[in-house]
């Protein structure tokens, strides 16, 4: 299993008590498959994504990424794991204002300690895959919302991650462009063979996903599986 | 556990990609800050040159003495040493000349008076020395009626070797013009000790010839404390004796204080700029951390940016200060243009600025990558 969440429990302090955000949640996502996590606001979707991204350590349960149990890894090791194994597509594109579209991708090699100039070909290949090869030299303010979101997706794939975590990718897009972005994520999941989780509140474009996990009050119910 | 381990890569420290792009992208902001660094460096550079130049006009006659120690009359009542208050006797310099480890002990009389030549007059410091003394340039040319003048004194009076001048009512002949020595902001004229005694106000001592201090050349065997005790003097190194020049101490202290404040201000201004800049880009930092950037690399990136800005601004400021210094160096403005007066302030500004920036950007360590999830940028 490329991504496995097993019996995850996560609580937050809430005054004198603790609020349970995730209650013994388990979710397995194989390589090359797409799981959609849906649910109302405050249900625990974002917490689930943050745990899978190793940005939050759960109170109980294990997160396994590409066969590696993340429990007990140091902060530096978790950072390295994110760098090499996890791609994150943020809800908002979160692009760096000073970088062009190609450089947004090349910066991932800097993060990995390599010279970003050596990664130009790979960046162009991914921008071509998301249909933005001709926009490589443009900065974020020169791109449309949909184009920025596609750069965001391409950036997440730059270091060939095993796991792709996508946070509300359609929240800032209209229906048509939202559908196109989810189609793109589905296609790239299969092409790049990633274990992908898409967190979304929008159920209208979920026909191509492999499994749907409904989150309610911190608990997960698998409601549909295409495989 | 521990199966996934990471190793530092060779080029990890070299890359300053985002920082460099930020510098190019936010040109206006960085140009403004760079201009502030240029102006502060220029100000510090000019102040350093002026401080050194003014200092030179206060002390050069003392620092150029072929002596490693200066013996003063031991001050009474806990007073500080002072060139203007000290009076030593012949008995004292004879005692010093016989002391073990003392190669030479020569009396030096110092007083300030007015010199006149034709229709020109100027204030001068009269340095009285014994005939053939090493303390004066071309000391062999000094007699009871012949003096050696510093170049500045000769220029002020418009005289040269062979001309005459009047010093404290006495007609004297200039036998040589040498060295550009100053003491307490006046150019120096070297005379015989006998003549000096006639130009200086009478002292209360009745022990025969007197001088102001004794210039000593000593070896490591010299026991200055014992000889001081015996002779009733107090001896300090030539360098330490500079604090006994009243005008130098107060003037140099004020200028150094201004320089110190400017250094502190530059560190504060640079620190404040990078504090605001780091707060503004904390969203970017959170995103980079979430994507897997290590805090150490982000700190290097940010510090590299600060150093690029500091070095660039400081080099320009130093260049302008050196150019202005070179323009005024030959004029009446006492500006000393040396590597020490130009480069050392630049190095201090870079070091203090980098420290200020380092303190500001350390907040990068506290940025939580979790904030990148769900944030709108």
TrEMBL record, chain A:
PROSITE patterns: ABC_TRANSPORTER_1 (PS00211), ABC_TRANSPORTER_2 (PS50893). One of its GO terms (molecular function) is transmembrane transporter activity. Pfam families: ABC_tran (PF00005). SUPFAM superfamilies: P-loop containing nucleoside triphosphate hydrolases (SSF52540). GO terms for cellular component: plasma membrane. Keywords: ATP-binding, Nucleotide-binding, Transport. The keyword Nucleotide-binding applies. SMART domains: AAA. It comes from the Bacteria. This is ABC transporter ATP-binding protein. It comes from Streptomyces parvulus.
């Amino acid at each position: 299993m490329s991504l496995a969440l097993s019996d995850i429990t996560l609580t937050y302090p809430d005054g004198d008590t603790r609020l349970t955000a995730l209650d013994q949640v388990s979710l397995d996502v194989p390589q090359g498959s797409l799981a959609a996590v849906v649910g109302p606001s405050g249900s625990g979707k974002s917490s689930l994504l943050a745990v899978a991204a190793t940005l939050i350590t759960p109170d109980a349960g294990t997160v396994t990424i590409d066969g590696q149990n993340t429990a007990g890894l140091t902060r530096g090791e978790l950072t390295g794991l994110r760098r090499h194994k996890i791609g994150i597509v943020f809800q908002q594109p979160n692009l760096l204002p000073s970088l062009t579209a190609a450089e947004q991708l090349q910066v991932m090699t800097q993060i990995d300690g390599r010279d970003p100039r050596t990664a130009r070909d790979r960046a162009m290949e991914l921008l071509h895959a998301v249909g933005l090869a001709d926009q490589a030299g443009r900065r974020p303010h020169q791109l449309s919302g949909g184009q920025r979101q596609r750069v965001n997706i391409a950036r997440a794939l730059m270091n060939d991650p095993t796991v792709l975590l996508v946070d509300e990718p359609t929240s800032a897009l209209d229906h048509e462009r939202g559908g196109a972005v989810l189609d793109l994520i589905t296609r790239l999941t299969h092409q790049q063979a990633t274990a992908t989780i898409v967190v979304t509140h929008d159920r209208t474009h979920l026909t191509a996903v492999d499994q749907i996990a409904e989150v309610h009050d911190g608990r997960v119910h698998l409601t549909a599986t295409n495989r | 556990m521990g199966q996934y381990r990471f190793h530092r890569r060779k080029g990890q420290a070299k890359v300053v990609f985002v920082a460099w792009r930020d510098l190019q992208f936010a040109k206006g902001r960085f140009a403004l800050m760079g201009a502030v660094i240029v102006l502060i460096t220029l100000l510090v550079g000019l102040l350093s040159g002026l401080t050194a130049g003014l200092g030179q006009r206060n002390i050069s006659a003392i620092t150029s003495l072929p002596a490693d120690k200066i013996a003063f009359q031991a001050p009474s009542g806990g007073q500080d040493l002072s060139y203007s208050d000290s009076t030593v006797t012949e008995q004292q310099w004879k005692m010093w000349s016989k002391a073990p480890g003392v190669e030479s002990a020569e009396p030096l009389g110092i007083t300030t008076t007015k010199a006149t030549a034709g229709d020109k007059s100027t204030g001068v410091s009269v340095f009285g020395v014994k005939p053939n003394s090493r303390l004066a340039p071309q000391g062999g040319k000094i007699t009871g009626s012949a003096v050696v003048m510093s170049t500045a004194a000769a220029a002020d009076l418009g005289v040269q070797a062979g001309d005459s001048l009047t010093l404290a009512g006495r007609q004297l002949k200039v036998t040589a013009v040498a060295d550009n020595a100053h003491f307490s902001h006046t150019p120096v004229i070297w005379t015989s000790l006998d003549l000096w005694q006639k130009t200086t106000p009478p002292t209360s001592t009745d022990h025969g010839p007197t001088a102001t201090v004794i210039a000593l050349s000593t070896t490591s065997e010299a026991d200055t404390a014992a000889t001081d005790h015996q002779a009733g003097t107090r001896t300090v190194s030539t360098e330490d004796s500079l604090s006994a020049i009243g005008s130098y101490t107060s003037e140099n202290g004020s200028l150094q204080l201004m320089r110190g404040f400017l250094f502190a201000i530059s560190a504060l201004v640079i620190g404040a700029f990078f504090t605001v800049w780091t707060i503004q880009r904390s969203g970017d930092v959170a995103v980079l951390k979430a994507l897997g950037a290590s805090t150490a690399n982000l700190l290097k990136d940010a510090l590299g940016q600060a150093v690029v800005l500091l070095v660039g601004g400081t080099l320009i400021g130093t260049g302008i200060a050196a150019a202005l210094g070179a323009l005024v160096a030959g004029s009446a403005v006492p500006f000393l243009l040396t590597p020490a007066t130009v480069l050392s302030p630049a190095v201090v500004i870079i070091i203090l600025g980098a420290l200020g920036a380092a303190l500001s950007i350390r907040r990068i360590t506290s940025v939580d990558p979790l904030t990148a999830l769900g944030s709108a940028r």
